[in-house]
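Hi team,

Filling in the usual template for the complex we talked about on Friday. All components are listed, including any nucleic acid strands or ligand strings, so the model treats them as one assembly.

SUBMITTER: L.P.
PURPOSE: interface mapping
COMPONENTS: two
RESIDUES: 985
SEQUENCES:
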Amino acid sequence: MGPHIDERPDGGFALYIDGDFQFDTSDEAIYHESLALPALCMARNSGVKDVRVLICGGGDGLALRECLRFPDVVSVDLVDYDPDIVTLGRTRFVSINQGAFEDARVSVHFGDAWDFLLPPSGDVPAESVAEYRESQGRYDVIICDFTVPRSPEQARIFTREWYERLSGRLTSEGIIALNTVSPQTTPEAFWCLRRTIKAAGMSVLPYRVCIPSFRAHGYGAWAFMLAANRPLRQHDLRTLDCPIPARQANPSELWRGASFRRSERRIERRMPVHSLTNNCLLPLLLNPGMAVEAAGNSLEASPFSLDPLMEAIPITHPYHTRVMIETLAEQVAATVTQIDVRRLVDALLRRAARLPAALRDELIRLRRFLTETTINWSRFLAWSARLFAALVVLMTIANAIAPDNAFAKGSAGLGHSGVSRGYSGSFGGAGRASGGSARSGSSFGTGRSASGGSFGRTGAFGSRSLFSSSSAPTMRSGGFRTGYGSGRPIDMYGTEYNIMPFHYYYGGGHTYFGSGQAAPPSGPQVEHKPLFAADDDMLVMDNGDVVVTLSEHAYLLVTGGKVVLRSDKSPDSLLALYADPALFQGILGQLNDRQAALQEAISVRKDWLSWVGWTSVLLPTVAQDRTELSHMEDLDKRLQEAVKRLGQPPAGAAPAPALRNDQVDLFVNARLEPDGRVSLRQEDGSWVFTDGALLTPTATVGTAGRSVPCPPELAAALHSVMVKLKKEMAADVASNKSDLSQLNSDMYSLKADLKEYENLQSSHDPGYQVDYGTDEIAVSDAIRKTQADIDQTNKDIQENNTESTKLERDQSRLAAANPALRP
Amino acid sequence: MSHSHSGVRTRQRPNTGVSKRQSAQNNRAVWCGFLLGVVGYLILSVKQPAGWGEGLWALLAFIVVPVTVGLVVNRVQAYGRPPRPTFFAGAKAVGWAMFFYASINLIVAGSRLGRPDGGGQEFLAGLLATVVYTAIAGAAAGFTNLALIRITAKRSNNGTAH
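RESULT (copied from the run log):
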C-alpha cells in the first residue's frame, strides 16, 4: 500500500505507511523529541564530544532534524529501505524536517538496516561489502525509528540478533534509542521487546509518552526504550540536561514515564525472547493477551496458503496482483488470528455461570432442541426462494409505479406520480413562481415579478422576526403535528415562525380630507394570533382576518372588503386605504392556491390512514399522522372562513394608476414621490401626501391652510417601511451585480466558442460534427445555436442593467426622502 | 419453549394420497385464483366513487374478492383434498394478490406523504398493514374453499348413501 498522506484543511497532515499511522504534524515533535533527545543528551552527558549518529528507518527526516539541532553532532548516517519515504522527506516534508537532508553532515543509505549493520565477522554478501566498509565504524547514538512490524520479515529487525548487531556497533559510552510499541494496548509485545534487548546483553530503560494523535488512533500511550552496553537507570533520565529547547516534549519530565507498576513489570517474566528462531513478537502484537506458549508456536503454522487462494479467485484484472491479494489475505488472517477462541469460550462460560438458573435451563433446553431438531433445509430453501422471487417482483412493480420512492436515496415524494407532483408543486417554493397562475406571480407594489407574489412592497415578514437575521425561522419537521395552533403561525411546509400576536380593534379606518374624516374611533383591542403563513408577507389570523405585513411595525389589515393601514405602535387604525381590486384578487388567489394544496395533502393523508390508521395504537408516528390530518382539516375550514371574511372591494373600484418612472413603490397604494413625500391613496380614492410632518390632500400641494399635522405613528410606520425597503434594495443590488458578473463570464465563453466554431467551419464543410454541450451536432447548427445564446445573454445583460439602474435610482430617491421619513 | 418434550418431534406429511394429476390441478387452481384476485384488486385500485367508505372497501377487499376467489379455486381444484391443502390453496391465491395490492398501494401512499424523514415507523406501519390484510384476505378465501369442499363432500356422501 505504501505511504499515504491525509491532508487537513488547516494545512496540517498525517502520514500513514501501509495503513499504519506514523505521525501527525500537530504533535509529531512530541514523538521525535522524545525519541531522539534523551539519547543525544545522555551521550553528551557521558562526555562524548563529536557525536556520530546512526538512524535506522526515519526516512521522513524528522528524527534527523532533531539530531541536527543538537550541537555536538558531527555526522549522521541514515539508512532506510524505502526510497519513497526518503523522497517524501526531501520534498513534501521539507517544511517540517527543516530541510534536514540537505545538511552536509548527513549521509543517506538505501537498503535494509539488517544488512547495513553486518557483523565484522559475519558472512557478508558480496554486494553489501563495499557499503559496509564505507560505513564501518562505531556510533555514539543509534536511533531506530521503525514502523511497527506487520509481517515476519519486518519483525526481523526486532530480534535479539538485531540488537546484538546494534550493540556491536555502539561505542562504549554510546546509547541506542528505540521506537517500540504501546505498553498499554500491547503490553506483552512491549515487555517481550524489553526482554529481547536484555537478552542481547544490553541494559534497557523504557519510558512512555502520551502523544494525542496516537491516542486518537487507538494506540494508547506510546513507549520508547534506551539501551546501552553500560548500566542505565531511571536516574539518568531524571538528570537529563538538554542543551537545546524542545518544542513540544519536555525532556526533563520524561523520567516520569519510566515508572511502571509491579503488575506491569511482572508480565516481562512470562515473555519469551524474540529471535530468529522464535518469532514470537508478531503474534503478541496481533493478539494482546495471548498466552506465551501460543505466541511461541503461532507462526509455525502458516495461517493460509496463497496458491490455492489465487487459483480460487476467478478475477484476472490487471490491478489484482498477487501482492495485493497476499496483502489482503494477510490482513484477513491477522484479524482472524486475533480471535482467541479459547478465551472467548472461557469468558462465555464464566458469564453463563452467572445467569439465573431458570434462564440457564431454558438455554440448555434450546441447545438440546437445536441439536435434536432436524431442519428440513430443502423446504426452507424452497420457501426462501419463493419469498425472494415475490420481493423481486414486488420491487419491480413498485419501481415501475414509483421509481424514485422505491429506490431513491432519501428524497421521497418529489413527484413521480401526478399527484405527488401536484403536491410538491403546490407546497414548494417554486410553486408560487412557476405555478402558471397569473395571480401567483402578481406583486403588489413592487411591479417586479422577482418578488414572487409579495403583497406588501417588501415581503415583510422580517418585520415580525420571521426572516430577520436576528431570529432565524424555527424549522421543525411535521409542524402540522405539533406546531399548529400553538400561537405561532406555520406555513404549508409545516415550518413554524416566531411572530407575536397582533392587537387591533375593528373601529374601521378613517380617511383624511375625505368623506369619513372623523377622528379614528377607539375601542378595546383584541389579541389575534397568526395561524397560517400563506405567503412571505401574508398571514391568516385565527379568526380568518388577513394581515399583510409591511415592515417592522406596519401592516395592512384586510377584511370585510376593507384595507386598513395599522401599526403595532398605535391602538387605532392609521389610515383606511383604497380597496384595490388587484390586491383582493391576489390575496384570494393565494388563499385558493393554498387551500387546494391543503386539500390535496388532506386527501393523501386520508388515503394513507385508510390503510394504516388502525396501527396508530401501536405506532406513534401513525397517531401523529392522525393529529396532522385533523389539524389540516381545521386549517382548511379556517381558510374557507378567511375567504369569506375577506369580502370584496366595492363595485366599480379601480386599480391604482400605473407607477410613474419618478415614483418609488412602497406598498399597495403608497408611493414615494419625487419631492420626497409619500403619497397614500385613501379609502375614497383620493390621494394624500405626507412629508412626515404634515398631511396634504391632492392638488393642494403647498397649500398650508388645508394641511393637517401628520400623526407621528403614521410617519413612524412609513419610515419603518422605507427602512425595510432600503435593506432589500441593497440586497437586490448585490444580487444583480453577482448575476451580471456571471452573465459577462458566460458571454466571454460563448464568444470564444463561436470563434472556434467559425474557424472549424472555415476549414471543414458545414456538416462537420462538433461538440455542443453533451451533444454532437453540425458546426453550422452549433454556430446558429451559439449565436442565439449570445443574443439571449445580451438581452439578459440589458435587463439586468435596466433593473440595476432602476434600483440605484430608487435607492437615491429613498435617500432623498424627507428627513422625517428618510431611512 | 414452555412445554418440555423428551423425544424428537418430527412432522410428517399426512398420507394424502394425492395423485400427480390432482397436484397439477391444485396448482392450476391456485394460479387461477391468484389471477382472479389480481384482477379484483386492480379494479379496487381504480379510483373509487366518492360515496364509497372504508366499510364498503373492506367488504369488497376482505369478503367479496376472497370469497369469489375461493369459489373459483374450489371449482378448479380436485375434490377429495384434505383440509390443510384445501385451505392453503385458497389462502395462497388471494394472499399473494392482496400482498401485492396492499404493498404497492402502501408504497405509493407512503411516498405521496412526501416525508423524507418518515423513516422506520412508516415502513413498519406499512409492513404490519400488508401482513394483516394478507392474512385476513387469505383466511377468508381459505375458509371459503374449505367450506365448499366440505359441503361438496357432504353432498357427495349423501348422494352415495341414496
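MY TAKE: The longest helix of chain B spans residues 119-161. Chain B touches chain A through 35 residues (CB under 8 Å).

Thanks, L.
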